[in-house]
Amino acid sequence: MARKKTKLAYITNDAARRITLRKRRHGLLKKVYELSVLCNVPVCAIIYSPQETDPVVWPSTGEARELLNRFNTTEGLSKENNMMNQEKFLLKQIVKLRGQLSRIMAENDDLAGEILLLECMAGRLVCGLRTYELGLVGRAVGRRIEAVEDRILMLRSSEVETQALPLLLPAPAMDEAAEARILMLRSSEVETQALPPLLPAPAMDEAMEARILMLRSGEVETQALPLLLPAPVMVETVVGGVDGWTDGVLGWEEELFSGCANLFQPDLGC
Known about the structure:
The chain has helices at residues 14-39, 61-72, 86-122, 131-162, 176-192, 206-222, 241-247, 254-268, and strands spanning 45-47, 56-58. The model is unreliable at 224-253 and 263-270 (pLDDT under 50). It is built from 8 helices and 2 strands. Helices cover 60% and strands 2% of the residues. By secondary structure, the protein is mainly alpha-helical. Among the domains are: 14-77, SRF-like (3-Layer(aba) Sandwich); 96-159, no CATH class. Its main location: nucleus. This is MADS-box domain-containing protein. It is found in: Nucleus. InterPro entries: SRF-like_MADS-box, TF_MADSbox, TF_MADSbox_sf. Keywords: DNA-binding, Nucleus, Transcription, Transcription regulation.
C-alpha cells in the first residue's frame, strides 16, 4: 500500500513532531553516509534540535570541523553557487508557485474565451458582453485565425513537393462480370500475343446476320464440290440456233464452239 503524501507544514503536536524529527534525522544521516561511500566525496552533517543541547554531528566532530575550515578557506563564486538558507529556499518556492499560477490562469482564460465564442455562435448577443469578456472572445478568434493560416501554409508547402507528380485518376468501379472478363483476357494474352491485332467486326443488322448463318449452314454441303469457274458474261440474247448462241458467248475458244456445233447439229435440224 502506498504511503499517503505528507503535508509540508509545521507539526503542532509535540509528540508527533519529536517522532518525526527522530525518523527523518535517521534517514538523513543514512543518505549522507550512502553519498560519501557511493560517490567518494567528503560529507558532513550537523543537525540541531530544540529538545537537545548538543547537535548531532556526522561522521565526527573533528572531521566536520576540518571540512568546514576547508570550505571557509575556499574563495570565488564556487563557494556560494549552491548555498541556500531558509529565506532563499522560500523565495525560490514562491517564484515557482507564481509561475504555475500564471500558467493555470492563462489556461482558464483560454477556456473561458472558447466558451464565450461558442455561446456567441449559438446566438448570444455580443453587445451584452463586458470588456473583459470581449477581450477573451477576441483572443479566441485570433487563435482560430492563426490555426487556419498555419493550415493553409502547411498545405501550400506540401503542394510544392507533389506538383511534379502526375495526377492519377481513380480506377472506375467494376462489377463482377467486368472483373471476370479482364481476368479471362489477361490469361489469354500469353496464347495470343504472337497473333496480329484484329480489327473489330463491323456492326451488322438482322438481315446480314441471317445471310451469314445461311451461308455457314451451306458450307457443309458444298465443301466437297470442286471449285467452279464463274459463268461467262453474256452480252447478247441466244437467238436462232447454235450459231447465234455461239456468237453471243465471250471468252470461250473457237475450237470449243465448233465442237459444240457439230454435236447439236442433228437435233437442231441445221
